[in-house]
Amino acid sequence: MSTDQRRVRVAQCPGESGRAFDVGQQERDDARRSVTLRAHSTRLARGLGGGNTRTIALTVRGRCSTSVTASARPRGGGTLTRFGHFDDVAREYVIGQPDTPLPWINYLGSEDYFGIVTNTAGGYTFYRDARLRRLTRYRYNGVPLDGGGRYLYVRDADTGQFWSPSWQPTRTDLDDYRCRHGLGYTVIGSRRDGVEVETTYFVPLGETLEIWRATVTNHRPSPARLSLFSAIEFCLWEAWDDATNFQRNFSTGEVEVDAGVIYHTTEYRERRNHFAFFACSEPLAGFDTQREAFLGPYRGWDRPVVVERGRSGDSVAHGWAPCGSHHVVLDLEPGAQRDVVFVLGYAENPPEAKFHPPGSGTLDTRGVRPLIDRYLRTGAVDEALARLAEHWEQLLSTLQIDTPDPHANRMINVWNAYQCMATFNLSRSASLFESGLGRGMGFRDSNQDLLGFVHMVPARARERILDIAATQLPTGGAYHQYQPLTKRGNDAVGSGFNDDPLWLILGVAAYLKETGDAAILDEPVPYDNLPGSEEPLYGHLHRSLRYTTERLGPHRLPLIGRADWNDCLNLNCFSETPGESFQTTENREGGVAESVFIGGLFTLAAAELAEIAARHGDTAGAERCRAAGTEMAAAVAEHGWDGEWFLRAYDFFGAPVGSAANEEGSIYIEPQGMCVTAGIGLGDGTARQALASVSERLATPHGLVLVEPAYTRYHLELGEISSYPPGYKENGGIFCHTNPWVMIAETRVDNGDRAFDYYLRINPSAREELSDVHRCEPYVYAQMIAGKEAPTHGEAKNSWLTGTAAWNYVALTQWILGIRPDHDGLRIEPCLPGGWDGFEAVRRFRGATYRIRVRQAAAGRVTSLTVDGRPVDGTLVPLAAPGATVTVEAEIG
Ligand code: BGC
Ligand code: NOJ
């Protein structure tokens, strides 16, 4: 909304300035759009921008959607939209309205204990594995949305009124609401009837517990007699079982309550030696642990009978659904403030010392009590919060940039890096789009995620690489996924995705370039985790490459197997059974279906391995890799070129896929991005031609679609891709993971303008003003934005856990800004948009700090480079001594 509070701007696409409308005005602004603007609850908005803002709701009918733009400047920079704004100074996203289009989440925890927390305190928590050790319950797909969380209720004894300070679950109107999602913590605050409650949620480093610190303030001129109730629902540990095996688990639930601490002890008497605890810093007026006693019959979390009547039931759960609720009475004088701390956590006792006294069947709490007590003191909470802030400062300071573009700055400096760490921690397991029940760590996903976090946590990246490589099969192939708790390949999904092994080479290459730690290549690593099968990691890389060369098709292109990067292009699958998984069902043995994309990926991987081999002293190996790469590039050029773009594949019958000859699916994005990135077609103009075709056929204002035209009917010979309605997911959605490949490809043909233009189209911060359309969080990438053939074009889905995070980070930092780790130093090869006059950056690399300043007089490539004032030939900044600070200056044009 603008400073004139009666007018708002409505834009349809990023970059558009949009049209101004009066609030209340109804308007049909073109043939397809009808827009109504109406004043929305002003109560909700007051906390946002210092009292001078209003929240405006926008109702849109018709096919094209629109969004509200605000021009008021909130604290900390950023633009105020009707949902919130970036506070760049605090590194927070501030949400000013609880009913965001979808729950907008954050993650808590970065080691063993994790939680999802939504902007209204929804979400759940788990120890290491979201399926096997889930502490609290969450209802995916439930209405109202986002049920189950870390809930508090406030009750006013004088009026009997009660509400949730996080809005959910009572959804009572609040006078002022804000949620600040920060780095590893979330603060949700609100005010109603003069009572303010602000709750900070976080997981202290090194602990397997989470803190909720609620600060309650009485702003009334009179005393406030309040009750505070906490509420969580325990998941009976195994999330799949919890959701399905009621005949058993309605009878297994157990708790113990001792000295104000609620212990969840389901199955502890028998095979488990772990338990959960939920504690509160204040003396309790009561507690509840039986869900139905707390809620009352036929009630939901929005109206628990205990809260309504203002008195706990002191219930002890026997079976059914154990929950945890504390009741604290707070009598606050005018202006008085009180902190109430809750600690929810996971603990284990040694299997032989589970009970006290031994054999009693009573939980031995002596080990965990001191820990609980420590955090119930506020000093320990502040200290832990400060350590968390330091931790993130340390991680993010590895690379900080200052460019003319605020969206690039805030994503790279904070949010994109943060999202990369989320993919490191969670792979594809737990988000609001990944249930935590199924997918563990993907082989290809984990290797690609690594590209985005290796510079922040190199030691943990090393461990990750060795874990992944240990699941590789002796054939050089790979289990498609492995389980985080066991680190074993996942039999249920199996193997045969023929691109998988090649990503290991890219992951290891990135690690080596970042760290210079060549010793990793000598680490003995087993195949399929079988003791005795160990071979140095270096050998694994060659087997990866050989896996492809041993599986070539009629055009000397790689056989696709079950699928390549595009899980949904299933050329050997021929599935006709409803509900059958395209990913696991038996495939036909054809030996014909080939992937041009794998051809590009192989060319890239072969070049990386050739370089690694040469440095490893394996000259013959290096030569073999180089020759294999050259041969593959030639095969792609000869059989993978369609005339105006790269073909996608040959199907089971040898017919082209992704060709002008195909009525549907005539051009795919993946081979254009990957083949050009690998350098194919740079010399003969085909690379440029392919990218021109991308721009013509695949580009939309919301990003580049995956395939065009999307499939309108089910193609038995193509599989899952054609199972999606046109414009969604792999079938012509803007599958954001692939866009940065094209950005990188554009830098390979020196087109910085186009690379950066594509970058901004999907940059979440640049799309913030379109939140009504985009709907997912504006601070992280989503896997997919609905494509041009979709009725909801521009709408994002599957936020957070996607390879999009790593690749966009790489595309912007390493190829557009051109700060690229290399084996012998830091490469500085920017390819900037023509309008920029340069940028600055600070990069920590192999123990030294590089202060980089790039000046661009005219669009082009680096013309001179100086290091500490001394000119350097080429674009490589040589390695400096650890601890050194180095000044790098580059001139362009
Ligand atoms: C999705 C893919 C995903 C695959 C994983 C498919 O349904 O469309 O994006 O990689 O499932 O199992
Ligand atoms: C999501 C999967 O996690 C990833 O491995 C795959 O490459 C993409 N979908 C495309 O299908």
Instruction: Round the mean pLDDT to the nearest integer and report it.
Output: 92
Looking at the structure, what is the overall shape?
A: globular
What proportion of the residues form beta strands (DSSP E)? 25-35%
Cα separation of the termini: 41 Å
Number of helices: 20
E-strand count: 48
Structural class category = alpha+beta
- Largest sheet geometry: 10 strands, antiparallel
Give the helix proportion (percent range).
Answer: 25-40%
Strand order of the largest sheet: 7-8-15-16-17-18-25-22-21-20
Output the radius of gyration. Answer: 28 Å
Which regions have little confidence, pLDDT < 50, spanning 5+ residues? Answer: 1-72
Ligand set: beta-D-glucopyranose, 1-deoxynojirimycin
Describe this structure in words.
It is globular and about 80 Å long. Helix 13 runs parallel beside helix 15 (670-677). The strands form 13 sheets. The protein has a ten-stranded antiparallel β-sheet. Strands 12, 13, 14, 19, 23 and 24 form a six-stranded antiparallel β-sheet that branches. It has a six-stranded mixed β-sheet with strand order 26-43-44-48-45-46. 25% of the residues lie in helices and 26% in strands. It has 893 residues and is α+β, with helices and mostly antiparallel strands. The chain contains 20 helices and 48 strands. Beta-D-glucopyranose binds at residues 567-568, 583, 720, 729-730.
Main attributes?
binds beta-D-glucopyranose; binds 1-deoxynojirimycin; globular; 6-stranded antiparallel beta sheet; 26% strand; 893 residues; 48 strands; alpha+beta; disordered N terminus; 20 helices; 10-stranded antiparallel beta sheet
